[in-house]
Amino acid sequence: MSERTPMIEMCNVSKHFGSVIALSDISVQVHSGEVMCLLGDNGAGKSTLIKTLSGVHRPTHGEIRLNGEPARFKSPAYALDAGIATVFQDLAMIPLMSITRNFFMGREPTVGWGPLKRIDWKLADRIAKQEMGKIGIDVRDPSQPVGTLSGGERQCVAIARAVYFGAKVLILDEPTSALGVKQASVVLRYIAKARADGLAVIFITHNVHHAYPVADAFTLLKRGGSLGTFRKEDITREEVLNMMAGGAELESLDAELAEFQRSDTERADADTSGVRPPLAAGQ
Ligand SMILES: Nc1ncnc2c1ncn2[C@@H]1O[C@H](COP(=O)(O)OP(=O)(O)OP(=O)(O)O)[C@@H](O)[C@H]1O
Ligand SMILES: [Mg+2]
Fold first, then answer.
1. 10 Å Cβ neighbour count for 111?
2. Regions of the chain short of the pLDDT cut 70
3. Per-residue CA distances from 264 to 163, 254, 261, 277 (Å)
4. Which key words are in the record (predicted)?
5. How far is Cα 127 from Cα 199, in angstroms, rounded to an integer?
6. CA nearest neighbour of 91 among 28, 26, 158, 164
7. Neighbours of 24 (CB within 10 A)
8. pTM to 2 decimal places
């Protein structure tokens, strides 16, 4: 057991939206150099959890600690300044803006002073190209629109940006859900790299094949509550899959499908049991 201070921690956090209890008494910890996968059905509270960590929502009860210190963020910008970078699936990029612009998003390097201060595009382009190169993506011209990159590459721009600006915590809400196998593997490889660089990573996915290879631990949410955190060495891929799909639900689905099959067979039997259409009788 490690007694290190977790990089990010939720202590008995609840989040209510009026009468809706989206999170109830959640405690999770993620250490630096570790990937925690957040699992759970639609509506389980995954996005609410990460929005609470990244300053979009304020917890109704409980506390967030960053590197052991209580943290209260007024907005995502404050969370980012404190080192918590969040990559949202849809809001990650502005397609018509250049790769460089998307990479810096208002934090471009400048030259000159006072009224002569302007963005140093040459340097900005060079950094964007170089940082993308570090993760194996060769951007020939970083001034081209980000919309010309593939989905996986776009996710990587968002992640590269977080790492470049010194994030300590990287939060990814379903970054691979809309991607093909090859693109998803680019993103997964980069998650592994962020972990190796010492970031604490929280990763939401519905895909066990994406979750299992990169995760060190799995936390399962159900209707706003936590069913626990499981270390990878204590749980098999099949058990994770069962937790994700909900073992009980799959069993009842099996029964339902068997029922469909039976009624199909009965119908087919009725068709062949003498009540043949007149056409067949005349032959
Ligand atoms: N701003 C809000 N106002 C009211 N209710 C909300 C709000 N945000 C989330 N909820 C509710 O909280 C619950 C958890 O939602 P959340 O988006 O966190 O689920 P999720 O696990 O991310 O689901 P999915 O896998 O579909 O993305 C849902 O019942 C949702 O309707
Ligand atoms: Mg969600």
1. 12
2. 1-2, 89-93, 245-251, 272-283
3. 55, 15, 5, 19
4. ATP-binding, Nucleotide-binding
5. 21
6. 158
7. 18
8. 0.79
- Hey, what's the torsion of the CAs at 142, 143, 145, 149, to 10 degrees? -10
Q: Whose CA is nearest to atom 16 of ligand 1?
A: 45
Place of tokens 């999770």: 28
Contact status, residue 247 vs residue 240, Cβ threshold 8 Å: no
Contact 219, 38 (CB under 8 A): yes
Pick from 38, 47, 219, 221 the residue to mutate for probing ligand 1's pocket: most ligand atoms within 8 Å of its CB.
47
Cβ atoms of residues 134 and 87 within 8 Å: no
Dihedral-angle region of residue 105 (phi above 0 means left; psi in -120 to 50 means alpha; beta otherwise): left
- State which ligand 1 atom lies nearest to the alpha carbon of 48: 18
Give me ligand 1 centre to Cα 230, in Å. Answer: 23
Tokens of 65: 């600690």
